Amino acid sequence: MVKIDFHNPEFVERYMKKNGMLFKAMKEEIARLLNDITLDGKRVLEVGCGTGYLCFEIANMFPEAEILGTDLSEAFISHADRIKERENFDNVQFKTADALNLPYDDNSFDFVFSFFTAHWVDDPVEYLREMERVLKPDGILIAGDTRYRFILSFIPGFKTAFRLKKAKDITMQAGIREHKFTSGFWYWRVDNLPVQ
Ligand SMILES: C[S@@+](CC[C@H](N)C(=O)[O-])C[C@H]1O[C@@H](n2cnc3c(N)ncnc32)[C@H](O)[C@@H]1O
After folding, report:
1. For residue 141, what are the β-bridge partners?
2. Structural domain contains residue 2
3. How many domains does the chain have?
4. Which segments of the chain have a pLDDT < 70?
5. Digit-coded pLDDT (tens) for 132-147
6. What pLDDT is recorded for position 195?
7. How far does the centroid of ligand 1 lie from the alpha carbon of residue 146, in Å?
8. How far is the CA of 71 from the centre of ligand 1 (A)?
9. Of the candidates 151, 186, 147, 176, which has an alpha carbon nearest to the alpha carbon of residue 164?
């Protein structure tokens, strides 16, 4: 089992330096997923935002969106805040928050998303339920995580990610509203995006 201390600022620096390829791929992916959607004038929440790179990408795509990035780790949130200040992202805010107990009202966001966080939280079913709770009835949800066999192939010993069956079981148990479950080569995803 790989152990990671997300609260260690040195880990955050390493994560930032080592994951350039992931960040690039995910920025392209979010741009593709949101291709037919506008978030200008909408409220956006990211759960487990890490360094905040996807919040910044969405801020570039939709300058009129109100974007909130949350993460349990103060080290990650401080890092994201420094980038926000340096790059003048006025429409992005960051806040320390537990994915399992989001400090937001029901039905309060138009778009809620999260990547690579499901297998780190203590209760992944509650994690999905919380995201849906704060999502407006006509809102968009995307939650995705790395595939077990993909990550294991390049990080030996990394057995924490979910196999597809478990990811599907969690989604079923969460009982989230109408959604699609998709598995690509490197990550699986639950979303209610319009069919592309
Ligand atoms: C592998 S990182 C992914 C970060 C980011 N989404 C990305 O794509 O780089 C997992 C993130 O989940 C956060 N996390 C773990 N448990 C959490 C919880 N209970 N609530 C909120 N965030 C949590 C960690 O601090 C870390 O930033």
Report:
1. 112
2. no
3. 1
4. 1-2, 156-157, 159, 196
5. 999 999 999 999 999 9
6. 77
7. 13
8. 6
9. 147
3 inside domain: no
pTM as predicted: 0.95
Query: 154 C-alpha to center of ligand 1: Å?
Result: 20
Using CA positions, which residue lies closest to atom 5 of ligand 1? 50
Ligand 1 pocket (Cβ < 6 Å) reads 6, 48-50, 71-73, 76, 98-100, 115-117, 120-121
Q: Supply the CATH number for residue 95's domain.
A: 3.40.50.150
Mean pLDDT of the chain: 93
119 occurs within a structural domain: yes
Please choose from 117, 119, 123 the residue to mutate so as to test ligand 1's pocket, defined by most ligand atoms within 8 A of CB: 117
**Strand blocks (E) in 43-170:** 43-47, 66-71, 92-96, 109-115, 135-146
